[in-house]
Design goal:
It is a single chain. With about 110 residues, the chain is α+β, with helices and mostly antiparallel strands. The chain contains 2 helices and 4 strands. The chain has a domain of about 40 residues: Surface presentation of antigens (SPOA), CATH 2.30.330. It has a 4-stranded antiparallel beta sheet, with no helix packed on it. Strand 2 and strand 3 form a beta hairpin. The longest helix has 9 residues. The two termini are about 50 Å apart. The model has no long low-confidence stretch (mean pLDDT about 85). It comes from Rubrivivax gelatinosus (strain NBRC 100245 / IL144).
Amino acid sequence: MSEPLPIDPLDTLDLDTVEPVPEAPAPGRKLAQLMRKIPVTLTLEVGSARISLDELSRIRADSVVPLDTLAGEPLTIKVNGTTIGRAEVVVTGDKYGLKVVEVSDLDLGLPEA
């Protein structure tokens, strides 16, 4: 086994030839950027109805089930089942869309990116 090289404490480091180490991004910021890319399911809820199993068993193709939402009232926007606001249905081209009427504070607990 070879002997370790002696270190001379009087050796000086030439700071003009040393390359600076690039600053790494803050860990919280990188996590926030990654978290913002997680897909979620956005749904628009028209309303709901509470019915018995007997009523459910009698539903057919032409059945009408009254919902608890009034006609013309904004619908509920949900993200992964949690209400975040209210919206109206709009048509964009040949698809339905939503026009946001009200949105709650979407503080996701993430540091700003």
